[in-house]
User: What shape does this take?
Amino acid sequence: MLVAVFWPIRAVADARTGPGPDSGAGLALASHQDLDKFLDEFLPPAMTRLHVPGVVFVAVKDGEVLTMRGFGYSDIESGKEVDPLRTVFRAGSVSKVFTGMAVMQLVEGGLLDLDEDVNTYIEGFKIPDTYPQPITLRHLLTHTAGFDERYLGVSEFGQDVYPELGEYLALELPPRIRPPGQVIQYSNHGMALAGYVVECVSGIPFARYIEKNILTPLGMDHSSFELTSKVETLLSSSYKWRKSKYEKVPYIHTNVVPAGMLMTCGADMAKFIMANLAGGELAGERVLCAEYVDAMQSQQFTNHPLVPGMGYSWMIGRRNGRRTVFHGGDIPQFSTQLVLVPDEDFGVFMSGNGIGAATLNDELTKELFDTFFPGPKAEETVHFGEGPDVSVPSLPAGDPQDLAGAYRMIRDPMTTAEKAISLLTQIRVTAQGDEAVALVFPIGSGMPHTIWVAERPGVYRDTASGALMVFDEWQTLFGRNRPSRMYIDLWAFDRLKFYETTSFATVCLGIIIAVFVWPVLAWVFRRKASGLAVLLGLVDVVAVTGIAGSLLTAPDWEITTRVPNTTKAALALPLVGTALAVALAWQTLTKTVDSKKPCRRPFNLRTRQGFASRVLPWLCVVAHAGLVWFLNIWNLLGWKF
Assistant: This one.
């Protein structure tokens, strides 16, 4: 599960690519031979180091394919090599760019309005009016609809029949947790809903619409949002690295089809890149007018004027001073990156089929830009807000100590048991003297901490990449200004209350487990202890270890398809424990009352018998109450999926 858990955190690391001023330097690439030499030197050793069996890479420049390469194997067992013309990779969330284009096609045709209530278009269910503001397509395409996120159960494994898109969304669409248009909160289900609008308005299934209106006109003959027999024959396998060897990962179906089901090859993506760089046209076939292509690739929403944001389904950013539009995609053991540099008429697509493909894509993209698009480090703040006269909100002057704390990505689920994921993905900000802070990634993410120096009040710049970190939504507490929100690139983070931090959770659970183990050890070493206290301790220790262990050890492709039965069983144990705690409290209370009757030996706290039989049971009851509170905070009390 850890791969799936750390994907959002890796996305933050991707943001650290240097949002700086335009360098004005041109492409340092003389020919495709230069790029091929670079790839030959970089990719093979990186693939070996990061355990990626196969990679496809395509680069387009000035309307032509600069290079198209396949490296390694698409299927190790059969010895099949990656063929950039035919080998199909799963592109994950790159699918969202196609969904955005489909929506804009219908907007261009007058069938959709970006600012109309989505409920006007969908069939079979309605989005609840949780807030007065309705959700629109503009919100869906910029990830500002305000839906909670969900990971568990978004996929199907080993199924011959998959749920229809509308059927799935009617049952599984996450709740709205904030008004639309407030903040970018990346949402797979939100983009899937946009795809369902396309399906409802066009009158044909989403996958068929994409095939008819985008894939076929562009000649993308080996691409599909459906696992057809043709695609299945060409589809690359994917692999994890286990016990010093590759192990094939099973195929899973993604229920949020418009958000992540694209399967494509290098040659097809070269055509898609060329069409997007040429204003929506390729070889005389136009899939979208230039006006709407430009709108998709222009910033439509940002969390703060100093950081980049979203176009319509495209992410907006800068690398080495150049404006980029991009989207990544991760699906179990496949990782993909699509990057356009419109001002250079340049674009790249890369995808890998192994556990380390995400890191490989990050490293390859950085090295590619540093080699062929060199630019100076940022020396001034760039405004990403709309318009030349954008005003930047003034921020309070702050001591780095006021910024210190744990932060949670707002994309993390909040209303289901998946909320506990944030215990593993929290980012810590620590003060480094009077003019700097450190960004500390969670243990297990594999990312080193980074140093950010103060540039202006509430704004810090990464010393390595030049990226900006902006603190916002300041509150006065005990006479000091403290932020409740942090932005890095287009990602937003909420500052956590002390009882929501991983540190507090670790200490809290440590104390609770220690109390539970106490009566068990007393029983093991034949000390007098209540049988109910021993049983309660066993039940709650098994509950904690069972919940954590079953989720952390489950493969990430399995955890997205269903909740493990061991997890369901472990989640039932605290309810059993509550019944035992009530019985233990009653038993102990009765004994205490009886001990006060005449002719009874007075209770002596200093005796082992008195402590084990009278005090320890109450400690167990209090510890269980603390566990119930803790589990309720993290939606782990019962089955909240």
